[in-house]
Amino acid sequence: xxxxxxxGLLRIPLFLQEQNSVPGRSNRFLARRAFRVFAGFSAAVxxxxxxxxxVTGNPVRPEIVSAAREHSGSFPAETPLVVLALGGSQGxxxxxxxxxxxxxxxxxxxxxxxxxxxxxxREHEAVAxxxxxxxxxxxPFPFTDRIGDWFPRCHAVLMRAGALSIAEAALFGRPCVxxxxxxxxxxxxxxxxxxxxxxxxxxxxxxxxATEEALWTxxxxxxxxxxxxxxxxxxxxxxxxxxxxxxxxxxxxxxxGKAFREGGAPDV
Length: 268
Hints:
Rossmann fold; 6-stranded parallel sheet; single chain; about 15% strand; 2 domains; alpha/beta
C-alpha cells in the first residue's frame, strides 16, 4: 500500500495484480489510481473499473511452466490411483486427517490408491508417525518449493483453493478436488474453486461436506476413471494461463508509455 500511494504522488504508473476471485480491500481501493488491474479470475472483474481491468490469469514461476509443458496431459500408470494432497506450507490439518482416514480404508479394503501428502512442517511428524506405524499407503513430505516435480506423479489433486495452487495444477492438466479454506477473507477461496470447477476441471465442496466418504468417492470418480480424468485434465489445461506474467508485463509496458505521454498516473 505505501509503495502504491507513493507511485501516485510521484506520478508513476501503477499496475495491480489481483490473484483471487474476490479482491482484497487494498486492491479495491488502489484500483482508482491504477492504469490497469490484471485479474487472475474473471469473477474479480466486476469489482474494478471496467476500463482498467483485464483477465490475464495468475503468474506461475518459469520452472513450473517449463515442467508443465513437458508433462501436461500425461498421467502415471493406471494403478495405483495416485492422489497429490496439498495443504500449503503450513499444512491443513483437516486435509491431513482425511487423507489418513482414507489411507486406513485403502489398507483395510486393499484398494489400489496411494497418497502423496504435503503435511506442512508443523504437522509433519503427527502424520508421519501413524504412516510408519500402520504402514499406510502415504508418502508424507513437509513442504517443497519444487512442486513441479510432484504434479507429474499423480492422477488427481486434493487441496485447498488458493489462487496460485489452482494455477499450477491447471498447467499440468490435473483434475482437482478442492476444499476451500473456510476462513479465507470474504470466502475468496470458495469463489476461486467455483470458477475453476465451472470449467469442468474438478469438483469442489465446502469443508463441512468434505467427509472421508465424500472425498473417497469423488477422488475415485474423478481420478480413477480414465475418461473422466482426461476430460477434467483437458478442461484444466484450457483454464490455465501459462503466459500470464508475459501478458501482464507486455500490457504494463505498453500502457506505461501511454501514461508518461499523458502526464503520469490518473488523478483520484
